[in-house]
Amino acid sequence: MSAFPARQGVCTVSVCRDCCCGTEKVPGVDHAAQLAGLTDALDGVCRVRVTDCLDVCEQANAVVVQPSPQGRRAGGRPVWLGLVNDPAAAQDITAWVRAGGPGIAPPPAVLELYAISPPNRPGGR
Known about the structure:
This protein is α+β, with helices and mostly antiparallel strands. It is 24% helix and 14% strand.
């Protein structure tokens, strides 16, 4: 896997893996293969990181695509995706991120089906 701490110009894909996402709560999904597929397909393109609970358990498996600095300057904002349980959804995310991600490339229309709102968190977190 590539080392990205020194590279600041890339997107970040955060994959939730905690109490619900990545567990038997979502049966029939090979969670390890999903994570490995994203990590392998995006190696050298962006950071893929595993995060604790994103507080959208009803939308397991959740993925957040955060724009690169260039994408943010172009108006891109983090995109929250839920119910990412189909290999095709992970492939669509991969294709979009490889094209530049938020602010740089429009997401495939099919990802609109997975778009969710971030949780409301007290204190504006």
